[in-house]
Amino acid sequence: MPIILALIGAATAFYFLVIRARNAADIATDVVDMANDVRLAARRFGFKRRTNLHPVESIEDPNLAISAIALSFLELNDLPTQEQRNAMVVQSQSVLDVSKIDAEEMMVLGRWFMSECGGPDAAISRISRKLCKIDPSGFDPLMGLVKAVLPDDGLNDKQRDALDDIKRAFRIR
Question: pLDDT tens-digit profile of 125-150?
C-alpha cells in the first residue's frame, strides 16, 4: 500500500511539473508575440528607433502621440478593462480619423512608449511635450480623445495632475 501511494504521489508531482512547464512555454510564446506586435506596429507607422535617443523623441506622427497620451491617461485610473480598450479604439477611429487596425496598432505602440517612459505619469508629460513640438494644434484632438475615454466615476488626483502636465506642455493657463 505505501508503494502504491508513493507511485500515485510521484505521478501527481510529475503531472504537476509537466503542466507548469507547458504553461511557462505558453507564456514565453505570448511574450514573443507581444514583442512582434510592437515591432510590426512600429514598422507600419514608419517608426524608426534611433540610437542614443529616447523612443518618444523619434515620434513623428501626431496621432501616435495623441493615442499614447490618451492610453496613459486611461491607465492612471487603473489597468483598463476590455470595454475601456474597445471604447478607446472606437473613439480613436472617430477623433483621429483612422481605421480600426491603425487605432489598435497605435494603442500597442502607445503602450510600448508608456513602458519606455517608466509609467503613465512620465509618459504623459514627455509625450505631451513632444506632441507640442510636432503639432502645436494637437491639443484639441488630444482633449477630444481624453474626454471620450474618461472614466464614469470622474477624475482622480493623478489624472488631474496629468491634465495640468498637458496644459503646461502646450503652455495653456
Answer: 999 999 999 988 888 998 888 888 87
What residues make up the domain containing 138?
55-169
Same domain as 39, residue 102: no
Within a domain: 49: no
Q: pTM of the predicted model, to two decimals?
A: 0.72
For residue 54, count other CB atoms closer than 10 A to its CB. Answer: 14
Q: How big is the chain by its Cα radius of gyration, in Å? A: 21
The answer to whether residue 143 sits within a structural domain is yes
Enter the C-alpha cell of residue 27: 507564456
CA 159: distance to chain centroid? 16
Q: What are phi and psi of 45, to 5 degrees?
A: -90, 5
Pair (142, 103) in one structural domain: yes
Cα gap 127→124, rounded to integer Å: 5
